[in-house]
């Protein structure tokens, strides 16, 4: 993968929250790349650090959290390379990137849009912050954007407040705002989770269409594997702050390597397969943030747990094929006899 | 139900007769007044549930699906009498065959039925009192109904916790010490404490992570087999509904639009709204991307206070004809125990979900 294809590289990112009770390692060594013009999905259960990763990229991690280690490299089209972690969180350089180069769509539009400002004014503010144009022109651009995201009567709706819009319309307004400065990278943090299936489907279509038109790169954060299957090119699976598997969408769905990815696939009920008996579950719960297991984070819940290996040694990343990496001892340098016996157990 | 969950088959003899109705809703209406001005003048009504008739049979799982704002939660809440229905009857068939209308019961006379009809709430974070221990939360119904107290109460609560897969040692802990999935189990234990006959599960798994959701779905099935429960499963996630339920009722703007067995509804929907709902569900397989006809509903769910004329679904329906704009379709029988509220059931060829 040449560098011109990559827009964002996250290298060994560690974001920690220093609370009174102890340190929460929300992101604990995240490593992945985002290819230009593609859609990458960050998948994982709640508490796996996917939202904190997104916030770390934009340097908007709430206190008492901060990035303690790692690099976030933004490759500009001009060939310039910026390490976002080196920039001051409140500095001019970072503020110029937020919204302009990298934009974010939040999960809950009701709480992330201002309830006391008209949606138009909020979009106009964003436009005028990054472009030197007058109010009238900015307003025309805002109406154009609202039209584009499929809000009917945009010239009238621009003067409504958030509470006057339905859930789907709010999310469209949110998307219009994120697109107002033509970002190169759009980070969407669970944008459809709070919506109905019918609305979700239209919003996903909209995001796909806009990506095609604007040649945008999208980083999509979700826990819904159905959504991943619909839109992703690449998938990054996270568990407890670590990336456990990376690969293209077809590999993740049809040839998943990590036991966690496999278990996740099996635990979702699939539409159109009536009477399948019981669902397979992942045993146990996601561990408490203060009590992370030693070695591989997943070992207490893992089907292929190898005593003496998984609970001691951090699994390294193993590249299995072009663009498919997994962090698991099953594929590493671990004792090959042990591996084979485990492999046969699994098949049984 | 016994055919599912192979490890939990119950002998035929102990199975209650499935065909008998347990709960019959007759023309149930729940209108919320819209008031204006100083004197709270009533200027209109939000028709959250509008003339719903539905029979829930003993020991079945009936799913109630629809978009947000369609009135499915309100319907559930009417049955448990959190709301007082505006009109209609909720006929509850008691074990000895007597029929009682829950809709008109007041005060103490409702109490015996609060044992028989219980509810599991959607949000495990807001539905448990943070100032009560698990013992108090799960034991409260037992105390209120004077079923147990003292050490017996503790034993029963410990037993219930064990049944829902929690460790009985946790009995003196507060809800904040538990994860979302564990809290939902506490909510389930509370609902089961009085050995109810019917449980209204209002989006019981929507707030949970996928791996935990699977655990809770399995638990609900096991408990149904063990306690001969009847579920009214209110949900919007169709893949969960297909997995769990025997029959499905589809609701749109306060009215039922389709009713049938799960297999019928998913394979051969008989209402354009059901077809659209099914086609909107993301398919968890990238190889199926852009295959099959996708139906995108335009516009929003109709306003309950000012529903459109004729069929409520007509502004979003792709098969809409002139008749749909004026004439309201009846929720009529279409054979094989199915019902649909569409004028053109006979003519339309609608697509369901095909097995993958």
What's the helix and strand layout?
The complex is a heterodimer of chains A (348) and B (356).
Chain A: E1 6-19, E2 22-35, E3 39-43, H1 50-57, E4 65-75, E5 81-83, H2 92-97, E6 102-105, H3 109-112, H4 119-130, H5 135-148, H6 154-157, H7 167-179, E7 185-189, H8 197-214, E8 217-222, H9 225-231, E9 234-239, E10 242-248, H10 249-254, H11 259-267, E11 317-321, E12 324-327, H12 336-347
Parallel strand pairs in A: 3-8, 3-9, 6-7, 7-8
Antiparallel strand pairs in A: 1-2, 1-4, 4-5, 9-10, 10-12, 11-12
Helix pairs in contact in A: 4-5, 4-7, 5-7, 7-8
Chain B: E1 21-36, E2 41-57, E3 61-65, H1 72-79, E4 87-93, E5 99-101, H2 111-116, E6 117-120, H3 134-144, H4 150-163, H5 180-192, E7 198-202, H6 210-227, E8 230-235, H7 238-244, E9 247-252, E10 255-261, H8 262-267, H9 272-280, H10 322-326, E11 332-333, E12 339-340
Question: How would you describe what is shown here?
Answer:
The complex is a heterodimer of chains A (348) and B (356). Chain A is 32% helix and 24% strand. Chain A is α/β, with parallel strands linked by helices and 348 residues long. An eight-stranded mixed sheet of chain A has the order 6-7-8-3-9-10-12-11, with helices on both faces. Mean pLDDT of chain A is 86; it is low at 334-348. With 356 residues, chain B is α/β, with parallel strands linked by helices. Chain B has ten helices and twelve strands. The two termini of chain B are 23 Å apart. At the A-B interface, helix 7, helix 8, helix 9, helix 10 and helix 11 of A face helix 5, helix 6, helix 7, helix 8 and helix 9 of B.
């Amino acid at each position: 993968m040449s560098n011109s294809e990559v827009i964002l590289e996250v290298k060994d990112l560690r974001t920690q929250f220093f609370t009174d009770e102890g340190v929460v390692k929300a992101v604990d060594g995240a490593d992945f790349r985002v290819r230009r013009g593609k859609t990458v999905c960050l998948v994982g259960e709640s508490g796996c650090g996917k939202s904190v990763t997104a916030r770390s990229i934009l340097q908007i991690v709430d206190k008492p959290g901060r990035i303690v280690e790692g690099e976030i490299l933004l490759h500009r089209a001009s060939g310039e390379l910026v390490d976002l972690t080196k920039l001051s969180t409140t500095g001019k350089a970072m503020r110029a990137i937020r919204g302009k180069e990298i934009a974010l769509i939040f999960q809950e539009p009701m709480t992330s849009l201002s309830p006391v400002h008209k949606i138009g004014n909020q979009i106009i503010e964003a436009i005028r912050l990054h472009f030197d144009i007058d109010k009238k022109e900015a307003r025309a651009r805002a109406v154009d954007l609202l039209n584009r995201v499929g809000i009917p009567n945009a010239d009238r709706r621009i003067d409504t407040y958030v509470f006057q819009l339905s859930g789907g319309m709010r999310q469209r307004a949110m998307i219009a705002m994120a697109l107002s400065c033509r970002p190169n990278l759009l980070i969407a943090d669970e944008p459809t989770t709070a919506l109905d299936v019918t609305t979700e489907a239209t919003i996903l279509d909209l995001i796909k269409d806009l990506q095609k038109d604007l040649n945008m790169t999208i980083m999509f954060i979700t826990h819904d594997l159905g959504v991943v299957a619909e839109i992703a090119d690449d998938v990054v699976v996270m568990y407890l702050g670590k990336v456990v598997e990376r690969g293209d969408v077809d590999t993740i769905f049809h040839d998943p390597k990590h036991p966690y990815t496999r278990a996740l696939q099996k635990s979702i009920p699939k539409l159109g397969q009536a009477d399948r008996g019981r669902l397979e579950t992942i045993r146990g719960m996601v561990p408490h943030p203060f009590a992370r297991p030693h070695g591989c984070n997943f070992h207490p819940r893992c089907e292929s747990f190898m005593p003496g290996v998984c609970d001691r040694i951090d699994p390294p990343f193993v590249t299995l094929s072009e663009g498919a990496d997994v962090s698991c001892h099953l594929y590493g340098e671990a004792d090959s006899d042990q591996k084979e016996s485990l492999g046969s157990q699994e098949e049984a | 139900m016994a055919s599912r969950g192979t490890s939990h088959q119950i002998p035929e003899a102990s199975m209650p007769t499935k065909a008998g109705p347990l709960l019959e809703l007759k023309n149930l209406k729940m209108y919320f007044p819209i008031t204006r001005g100083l004197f709270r003048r009533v200027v209109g009504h939000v028709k959250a549930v509008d003339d719903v008739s539905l029979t829930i049979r003993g020991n079945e799982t009936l799913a109630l699906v629809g978009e947000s704002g369609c009135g499915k939660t309100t319907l559930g809440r009417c049955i448990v009498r959190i709301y007082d229905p505006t009109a209609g009857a909720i006929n509850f068939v008691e074990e000895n065959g007597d029929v009682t209308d829950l809709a008109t019961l007041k005060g103490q006379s409702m109490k015996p039925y609060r044992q028989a009809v219980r509810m599991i709430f959607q949000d495990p974070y807001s539905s448990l009192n943070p100032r009560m221990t698990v013992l108090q939360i799960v034991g409260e119904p037992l105390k209120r109904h004077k079923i147990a107290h003292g050490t017996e109460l503790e034993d029963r609560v410990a037993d219930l916790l064990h049944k829902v897969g929690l460790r009985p040692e946790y009995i003196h802990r507060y809800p904040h010490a538990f994860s979302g999935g564990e809290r939902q189990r506490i909510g389930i234990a509370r609902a089961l404490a009085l050995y109810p006959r019917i449980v209204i599960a209002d989006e019981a798994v929507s707030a949970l992570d996928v791996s935990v959701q699977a655990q809770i779905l399995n638990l609900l099935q096991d408990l149904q087999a063990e306690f001969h429960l009847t579920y009214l499963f209110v949900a919007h996630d169709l893949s969960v509904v297909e997995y769990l339920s025997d029959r499905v009722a589809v609701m749109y703007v306060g009215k039922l639009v389709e009713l049938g067995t799960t297999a019928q509804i998913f394979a051969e929907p008989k209402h354009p709204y059901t077809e659209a709902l099914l086609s909107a569900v993301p398919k968890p397989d990238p190889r199926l991307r852009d295959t099959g006809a996708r139906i995108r509903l335009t516009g929003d769910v109709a306003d309950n206070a000012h529903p459109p004329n004729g069929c409520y679904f007509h502004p979003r329906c792709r098969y809409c004809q002139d008749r749909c704009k004026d004439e309201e379709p009846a929720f009529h029988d279409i054979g094989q125990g199915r019902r649909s509220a569409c004028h053109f059931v006979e003519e339309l060829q609608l697509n369901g979900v095909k097995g993958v």
